[in-house]
Amino acid sequence: MIAKHLPILQVIIPLLAAPVTAFLMKGRVAWGFAMAVMFITFIVSVLLALGLPPYGLTYMLGGWTAPIGIEYRIDALNSYLLPLISGAACVMAPFALRSIEAEIPEHKQSLFYAVFLLMLAGLLGMSATNDIFNIYVFLEIASLATYALIAMGQNRKALTAAYEYLVQGTIGATFFLIGIGFLYFATGTLNISNMATRLPQASHLRIVDAGIAFVLIGLALKIAYFPLQGWLVNGYTHAPSLISAFLAATATKVSVYLLLRLQFTVFSGISDIFSIPLAFLLFAVAILGIVLGSIAALYQSDIKRLLAFSSIANIGYLTLGIALATSLGLTASLTHFYAHALSKAGLFLAVGCVFYAKGSVRIEDMAGLLKSMPFICICFIVCGLSLVGVPGTVGFISKWMLLQALLEAKQWGLLVLVLMSSILSLIYIWKVAETMYFGASSGKIRAVPASMQCSLALVTFLNILFGFYSAPVLGSAARAAYSMFGVYP
Q1: For 389, phi and psi rounded to 5 degrees?
Q2: Among the residues of 129-205, which ranges form H helices?
Q3: How far is CA 64 from CA 3, 67, 71, in A?
Q4: Which secondary structure element, helix H or strand E, spans residue 72, and what is its range?
Q5: Domain extents for the chain?
Q6: What are the distances in angstroms from CA 457 to CA 98, 119, 281?
Q7: Within its chain, how far is the Cα of 207 from the centroid?
Q8: Does an H or E element contain 89, and which?
Q9: Contact between residue 205 and residue 186 where contact means Cβ atoms under 8 Å apart
Q10: Contact 274, 209 (CB under 8 A)
Q11: Which of 269, 250, 234 is nearest to 157 (CA)?
């Protein structure tokens, strides 16, 4: 009986738990309750992925059938993403306890966990719904929660970063909403599947061109394509350690998922609508992100800012596979969802441990830490090697798949670009590792709690595990990629 309600339970559990956490919980009780909610949400997402029928699972809210009612639809693509979002929250839950106690005043901690659950519900809702206006609603829930969470950072620059994200995020959401309005005017529906059916008949209307353009610009802001990446860099840099890690692992993946969903579901029947092909635009922003993100990372002295620019480059990798528009290219991009999430989460968690111990995230202040904090530094190096794409890590699997996709498409220049970018990432990871090993340690070092190291150890282990046993990730990614072309193996 409960099984048929799993799609809505995926979203409604953290959504309803948020106000309970804010008004009824305090301190560690709020953390314990929030952690329980995260684990329940993760179990639901796993059950959805394991029990998914070949053609997906549909849930109608309130019994109203689509396209009139709001439809939740779980298929091969979003069932691949949902465990990543909820799983990231679960893995980071032990880290949150002591990290948040150190960075957030006690009277704000219950509010922090409540807002975190709202952000989690928003990300899951965007992934699960099959209604484009509902996507906008959950986009706003997740964004508003993220603004508040970034603003809770210890540095006063966190307020500036949150405000900058608020301005850019509001512009992006407004563009997205205007685009939805234009598409609704042209098709008379908000249901994604129904809109995909009706849109080709309305493709001669100029309002459809405008609607697609507005939607894509809105998503570009949310994804943080160059030169719209300012909010991401400053947000990741000044947010609390937990939020930097969670956003790096999940937020951009959900935005890229929306691009993938709309491109291959809604816009696929009118691919020739623009005078400039969409694939060309995607290639352009991917190349800019890979080149400029990698180069900018080399010149950073703040480790969180370095990792933020690295994320810009990896968003380029995600987009590159989508731009190829082949099953192998999509498989590579979807595999990189997990590879980048695991490597970047591990790196940010390691930096969070360093911040707890030393109160600084400047590279120069990490000098000599390999001797005083060997476990944390080794985890950082392992996750860094995964980010580079060294064999034996999950990062190698996704980059190898991307190189294969580029070879298949005979994109020799892009293949060289990916290899050169990987070398640049090796250089900036080596810069930090060299400082950890050869530098002279100074200042007091506070012992890092076991709970924080536990989360870091688990993420590091997963980077290695999926590097040697990649079948679950590759199989699910391939299944999701083929489903975008209407093939259900």
Answers
A1: 105, 35
A2: 132-151, 157-187, 192-198
A3: 19, 9, 8
A4: strand 71-74
A5: 3-483
A6: 16, 25, 39
A7: 31
A8: helix 78-103
A9: yes
A10: yes
A11: 234
Reading phi first (left if > 0) and then psi (alpha if -120 to 50, else beta), residue 56 is in left
> Would you tell me how many other CB atoms lie within 10 Å of the CB of residue 174?
13
Write the CB contacts of 140 (distance below 8 Å, at least 6 apart in sequence): 122, 173
Cα dihedral angle (345, 481, 65, 13), rounded to 10 degrees? Answer: -20
Beta-carbon contacts of residue 128 (< 8 Å; ≥ 6 apart)? 7, 10, 11, 72, 73, 74, 78, 82
Q: Which residue has the tokens 């994200």?
A: 165
Alpha-carbon distances of 294 from 23, 249, 297, 307, 421, rounded to whole Å: 44, 18, 5, 10, 6
Using N-to-C axis directions, what is the helix angle for 78-103 and 471-483, rounded to 10°? 120
To the nearest 10°, report the CA torsion of 115, 231, 136, 109. Answer: 0
DSSP state of 373: S
Buried residues in 220-244 as b, exposed as e (16+ CB within 10 A): bbbbbbbebbebbbbbbbbbbbbbb
The tokens of 451 are what?
């709970």
Q: How far is CA 251 from CA 3, 73, 161, 262, 282, in A?
A: 27, 20, 16, 17, 19
Q: What is the pLDDT along the chain (489 residues), one digit of tens a residue?
A: 566 788 888 999 999 999 998 887 777 888 999 999 999 999 999 998 888 777 778 888 877 777 777 889 888 888 899 999 999 999 999 999 898 888 888 888 889 999 999 999 999 999 999 999 999 999 999 999 999 999 887 778 888 888 988 998 899 999 999 999 999 998 888 889 888 888 888 877 888 888 888 998 898 888 888 777 777 888 888 889 899 999 999 988 998 899 888 888 888 766 555 445 777 788 888 888 888 888 888 888 889 899 999 989 888 888 888 888 888 989 999 999 999 999 999 999 999 999 888 888 888 888 878 888 889 999 999 999 999 989 999 999 999 999 999 898 888 888 898 889 889 888 888 888 888 887 666 667 888 889 999 999 999 999 999 999 888 888 888 898 888 877 655
Instruction: Say if residue 200 is preceded by a cis peptide, omega within 30 of 0.
Output: no
Cis status, amide bond into 67, omega within 30 of 0: yes
Task: From 119, 448, 155, 83, select the one nearest 304 (Cα to Cα).
Answer: 155
